Amino acid sequence: MNTTKTAFPKLKNHAPYAGLLLGGIGFLANVAGIAGLVLEHGNELVIFASLLATICGLYLLLRRWGKTVDIRVLAAVVLIVAGSVVLTLALKNRSIHEGQHPQDNSQTTTDGSGDTADAGDSTPISVPDVSGNHTVVFRKSLKLLSQQGLDIDDKKASVLEQQSTASSPSDIYLSNYPALFVTVDNFYTYQRPSSSTGNTDKDQYNVCQSLIAHSQLGEHILVDTSIKPGQQYCLTTTAGKLALVTVQELASGGKDPSQYNASIAVKVWD
């Protein structure tokens, strides 16, 4: 009896190609994540890309588990490390942009000079009169654009172009999150005094000096979701002067970081 054997075609092993494909996807995902991180734009895309790269790296590493260490293992480790670092930085940036809590702000009034007075927390605070001979050096309203710094120690509020961080000589910096950063210490939300000297400038100086010296509630970063129009903040300049900043508007300008801007008014004492 003749038995005919049927020859089945051998299936090609595509496993090596699958590994190569996943490695390529992981590499491209890391590149996209790093690019998005550098441009400070598209946090969701950066998070997705870094997660994808990390997962691809983990899969490739598990496939080679227990086998000889070779270039494929090293590539998988690189994907995992790079993806994890990019993911961590993206989540940190996202927390900066969204993790701030709005603060209460009372209605603002203006004094005879046109300055905003008694803005900030609705609860008045008791402060000593320490204004002495300190006088207002200058006051000015202006608009700060994305990646611009503001030097308010030069008595004219010079705008510094193409800044990448809050550092001297800039006293205030607008990033493209958008967020306002202060160079020295923190922003302190202005609170109206419980008793007035009858001089708005003196009252504001006394409040700012007390807040900066004693308050533990300052914020190094202000984001658009935490600011109401007219909210005021005390700060110390890089030259050690006291300043009061009124944030009239912090606009994101949609998805284009170049359109981010902050309309502010500054007052500086000597």
Core attributes:
alpha+beta, about 25% strand, elongated
List the helices and strands and how they pair.
Elements: H1 15-38, H2 43-63, H3 71-98, E1 109-110, E2 116-117, E3 121-125, E4 136-145, E5 148-151, E6 158-160, E7 172-175, E8 179-182, E9 188-189, E10 191-193, H4 200-214, E11 221-223, E12 231-236, E13 242-251, E14 261-269
Parallel strand pairs: 3-10
Antiparallel strand pairs: 1-2, 4-14, 5-6, 5-7, 7-8, 8-11, 9-12, 12-13, 13-14
Helix pairs in contact: 1-2, 1-3, 2-3
Low-confidence stretches: 99-114, 116-122
Quick one: overall form?
Answer: elongated
Portion in helices: 25-40%
What characterizes the major β-sheet?
A: 5 strands, antiparallel
Write down the domain tally: 2
Number of strands: 14
Helical element count?
A: 4
Mean pLDDT comes to 77
Q: Label the structural class.
A: alpha+beta
How far apart the termini lie comes to 113 Å
The ordered H/E elements are HHHEEEEEEEEEEHEEEE
Strand percentage lies at 15-25%
Output the radius of gyration: 28 Å
The neighbouring-strand order within the major sheet is 4-14-13-12-9
